[in-house]
Amino acid sequence: MNEKVITDPHHHIVPLKVYIGVGIFLYILSAITVAVSLIHLGSWNIIIALSVAGVKAILVALFYMHLRYDKKIFMIIFGVAVLFLVVFISITLIDSMSRGEINPEDKGDIEKNAVIYHSKDKNMLADSLKIEPEDKTDSSE
Description:
The chain is 55% helix and 4% strand. It is mainly alpha-helical. It folds into two domains: 5-103; 109-141, no CATH class.
């Protein structure tokens, strides 16, 4: 009975080791996110990063925001919201990952010669924006 405890707003007793354990697990998940960002896995990088971020958000909501110990209706509302978020993000990822399978000309960048990809070339940027570039001199002087 010498174990330190913390009470949540509804006076549930939560052992301190639960908070510490969840905190350590959140640090491990953050390290996984950083490690995966350094490895080129193609389109799987975003899937893994979003999955780890989702797990971290759920852990924070359950333990640090005390959703686990609150009324169950709040857990149901949170679960439905997370489910809809997963569905919408999945649809977006499926669309972006399968782009070009039906129409091969749509695969890749939308506009390969877009100004944004050549922003270092001030003349090209100036021409596209219809402004005078900085390095042109006025011949009337």
